[in-house]
Amino acid sequence: MSSWIPIAKAVLPTLAEIAGKAIPAFSGSKEHARSLEAHTAEIAELQAAVTQNAAALRTLAEQMETTVRAVDEGARTVEQRITRLELQLRMTRVWALAASALAIVALVLVQQLR
């Protein structure tokens, strides 16, 4: 039962401070009420910020599109290179098998000549 008392003692000052700051913001007193001009100015500032953010977002989207195109082109180039290397590897294997077969035939012929 008494284990919650230290927690309450630690939390209550913080809650009191938060309530002290929040209650005036939600009260209907005239000293905290804003004029229509102040709200209009805030709305204009917010609209300007939104417009600026939209322009920045458009720029970022264009840069991202350019980056994605470059990455796609690089990926295509790498895929082509891998295909060429795989073909070269297959050809190397064929030549290695042919050379091994020729070496075996040469060894057999040398053994028959002795």
Q: What does the radius of gyration come to?
A: 39 Å
Mean pLDDT: 82
Order of helices and strands: HH
Q: Into how many domains do the coordinates divide? A: 1
The number of helical runs is: 2
What is the general shape? Answer: elongated
Number of strands: 0
Low-confidence runs of at least 5 consecutive residues: none
Beta fraction of the residues? under 5%
Q: Report, as a whole number of angstroms, the end-to-end distance.
A: 105 Å
- Helicity, as a percent range: over 70%
Structure overview:
By secondary structure, the protein is an all-alpha fold. The protein has one domain (34-113). It has 2 helices and no strands. The mean pLDDT is 82.
List keywords for this structure.
114 residues; mainly alpha; 2 helices; 89% helix; elongated
List the helices and strands and how they pair.
Blueprint (H helix, E strand, L loop, with lengths): L3 H23 L9 H78 L1
